[in-house]
Amino acid sequence: MSASSATLMRSTATSRAASTRDHTAIDTGRAERLRAEIAADGCDAGLFYDPVNIRYATGTSNMQVYSLHNACRYVFVPAVGPIVLFEFKGCEHLSIGHPMVDEVRPAVGWYHFVSGPRVAEFATVWAAEIAALLGPGARDLTVDRCDPVGADALARHDIRLHDGQSTANRARMIKTPEELALIRTAVAGCEAGVAQMRADMSPGMTEQELWARLHAANIAAGGEWLETRLLTSGQRTNPWYQECSDKVIEAGDLVAFDTDLVGIGGYSVDISRTWTADGVAPTADQQRLFDAATEQLERNLELFRPGASFAEISQRSHLPPDDIHSVTNAAVAHGIGLCNEYPLILNRDHFDDGGVRRPDRGRHGVVRGGARRSARRDGVGETRGADPRHRSRDRATLDVHARSGVIRRPVPLP
């Protein structure tokens, strides 16, 4: 048995243990954080359609990718009171008895695919049910997604809408201890898939064939989906953000990728790697790029310390030499949890003291040799670089003050 196969088998066993783990503490902690942010926004309740937010609020999942583009399920989360999950019709049994779901009802679909010319009619029925759940005198509702027809229907009940995505983002920035344990499992599963890719990679296979190894490993380990198709080789690695193709990987090629996957337990793992296709030593140019990426990573890591503001990190962030300074990616750091999450810290060309980013001014990013630290609020931080995509060197947890953008304390994460 190969080392990578053994690693994948261990990861699969770990994922089975994770699937049987009691998630009550995870689900309870997440729901409490979300309720607290709803109340902090001065709202009576939240209504969430984003499947990532539904999972965060309830611990349930169903047709996650399908519901990203079809508003087929949603959850009503009051600041105080029972949580009501509106499930895709015929799927109510999936969530009955779940500890964070007090009631399951069939969802009222009013999107055009299922309603056709009756969208307004079904939206009216839907809005009346939401208004009834809010109850007399409750009028402030934070909503992450709502088409104009639905917003108009709620307005007829004198319901005031607030930005539910920011509400959920602030809740998700802080990871509970139970979440961190599950994140470790998700990272291990992803790393096993990456090891399988490395073992199977050889000149003569296509980019898509190599990318399929990660898909297969993620599903086998209990993961869910890949959010992008960022795997390229040879000349296609520059500029970055090209999707994998049927190009044949050749001897001596650099092969670069971002995992960008939603893995075990629904947690995202965003790791970057660059290899030579046949394992030979890099060329002088490739080594120079690698060294520049390493320097950028190590220097930017030093900026993440208690008391540092997002603006300070941005302004002090290290950039590579001008001749390899690309404009593909402006990120110095971004959060990660159930997906890529707030905060997003951009380099000094794009950061504005009044917020996380300012409008682009003729540029679209920082560096394709750039270091990025995926810093989650009290979550796992992945350090990586691109061109070549640098191996993860450090993990830490950060407690970031949501409203002031200040890192308060680091917590070691083994």
Descriptive terms for the model:
three-stranded antiparallel β-sheet; 414 residues; disordered C terminus
Description:
By secondary structure, the chain is of the alpha+beta class. Helices cover 36% and strands 19% of the residues. The chain contains twelve helices and 18 strands. The protein has a six-stranded mixed β-sheet, with helices on both faces. Strand 2 (74-78) and strand 3 (84-87) form a beta hairpin. Residues 354-414 have low confidence and may be disordered.
Please write out the topology.
Layout: H1 3-20, H2 24-40, E1 45-48, H3 51-58, H4 66-69, E2 74-78, E3 84-87, E4 103-106, H5 112-115, H6 119-134, E5 140-143, H7 148-155, E6 160-163, H8 164-173, H9 177-200, H10 207-220, E7 225-226, E8 231-233, E9 254-258, E10 261-262, E11 268-269, E12 272-276, H11 284-301, H12 310-316, E13 331-336, E14 340-346, E15 371-375, E16 381-385, E17 396-401, E18 406-412
Parallel strand pairs: 1-5, 3-4, 5-6
Antiparallel strand pairs: 1-2, 2-3, 7-10, 8-9, 9-12, 10-11, 13-14, 15-16, 17-18
Helix pairs in contact: 1-9, 2-8, 6-7, 9-10
